[in-house]
Write a structure and sequence with these properties.
The complex is a heterodimer of chains A (127) and B (266). Chain A is mainly α and 127 residues long. Chain A is built from 4 helices and no strands. Chain B is of the alpha/beta class and 266 residues long. In chain B, strands 1, 4, 9, 10 and 11 form a 5-stranded mixed β-sheet that branches. The chains are: A mainly alpha (127), B alpha/beta (266). The interface between A and B is medium-sized, with 20 and 34 residues.
Chain lengths: 127, 266
């Protein structure tokens, strides 16, 4: 396997960024797997095979959510924006614009995290 | 532009990147409290108090009974430092070794202050620390580092008896931390690894500002750190030689389950 998750020379990246990139790659893979199972489930006729694949897809839901939560904990601005969009019944686009505004990024386009070092939670980070 | 006024500083984008990177590198190893408590937020600079969900003073007003809500105000920590403008100019020229000692020192100060507030409290700010609030019997520790596995096991057993699940973390004062990582038990087995097994895989955390050690459950929901503004670098003023900056954060800290920790007192 390669190291495709890196777009910059890995040796120049700090450990924190390498970890972040790994989890981003993992998140992508989980989302892909969810999509693949969705397609398989749509065409499969065998009930036993369907049950197995539904179970497998449920696992991918869990993995995706865990990856996402890790990344949100490490990225306060992302977390702020996600909090305004996820698990609401509002119009998704409106919630997105409001969340972006609320995070201090001033609407579409966005900017930096307004001077924050973005350290946030370090729970689970080894010394 | 927000209240940090970074755009007002005579610092280039590359300069800010270097300052932020250096600050992050210095802060993260020293921010021990954040490795063991629940970090909530950041809620923003305008976040002023955490809701305690309780009422304080009660009485009567104009014929109706009244009560007053209690909240825990956030505290603002600021550690000032200066950076030489000549050093920042050298950074632009490609110098890889610019002098950021004052920033490093400020990072140490503010990380230590955060740790002391969380682990040992800050009475004037209304913050009770984990060690002083702990309801479990204190474990008295001595000079012999070989005994730290026993101290840790005793603390973990106390927590288990109270129904406090793991994994657990052990936050250790720097001297104790150094003693533990240097010690091999009889048979050559590293004490560090032995203690981590006792902690159910949890970390041993280097904790500047902590006196002795604190064993803390990592199960969540017990120790709540509410961040207003997370650690940031702001601009104060500049003169011909130096730029005057500061590291700043705002937070409150409260304990939901004082039983979820055990203090190892020196």
């Amino acid at each position: 396997m390669g190291f495709d998750q890196y777009h910059e020379p890995p040796e120049e990246l700090p450990a924190r960024t390498r970890t972040f990139a790994r989890l981003c790659a993992s998140l992508t893979e989980e989302a892909e797997a969810i999509g693949w199972y969705e397609q398989r489930l749509a065409v499969e006729q065998d009930p036993e095979a369907l049950a197995v694949m539904r179970n497998a897809q449920t696992e991918e839901f869990k993995h995706f959510a865990m990856d996402l939560e890790f990344l949100l904990r490490r990225t306060p601005v992302w977390r702020d924006i996600a909090r305004g969009i996820l698990f609401t019944d509002e119009d998704i686009v409106e919630a997105g614009e409001e969340a972006e505004e609320g995070a201090g990024l001033g609407g579409s386009g966005g900017g930096g995290p307004e001077g924050s070092l973005g350290i946030g939670s370090l729970k689970g980070v080894a010394t | 532009m927000n209240h940090l006024l970074r755009e007002k500083a005579p610092i280039t984008e590359q300069g800010w990147e270097e300052l932020d990177r250096e600050a992050r590198e210095r802060l993260e190893p020293a921010l021990a409290a954040r490795k063991v408590v629940d970090f909530q937020g950041p809620h923003g600079w305008d976040f002023s108090a955490a809701n305690l969900g309780r009422t304080g003073d009660t009485g009567e007003f104009e014929g109706v009974s009244v009560s007053r809500r209690r909240v825990l105000p956030v505290v603002e920590l600021r550690a000032s430092f200066t950076v030489s403008r000549a050093e920042l100019d050298d950074l632009e020229r490609g110098a890889p070794d610019i002098d950021l000692d004052a920033l490093d020192e400020a990072a140490r100060r503010i990380a230590r202050a955060e740790n002391v507030a969380v682990f040992h409290g800050w009475a004037e700010a209304g913050i009770r620390g984990i060690a002083e609030s702990c309801k479990q019997p204190t474990v008295a520790v001595g000079e012999d580092f070989n005994a730290y596995a026993r101290y840790t096991a005793e603390a973990v057993e106390t927590l288990l008896r109270s129904g406090i699940g793991g994994p657990y973390a052990l936050a250790l004062a720097p001297d104790q931390y150094t003693g533990v990582i240097r010690t091999a038990e009889h048979g050559g087995y590293p004490l560090f690894d032995h203690i981590r097994k006792i902690l159910a895989g949890g970390p041993i955390v280097w904790a500047p500002g902590v006196r002795g050690g604190v064993v803390v459950s990592l199960r969540g929901g017990d120790f709540l750190f509410d961040s207003g503004q997370d650690l940031s670098i702001g601009y104060d003023h500049h003169d011909a030689e130096n730029v005057h900056l500061y590291l700043e954060e705002s937070f409150s800290f409260r304990i939901a389950t004082p039983e979820a920790a055990c203090y190892l007192a020196p």
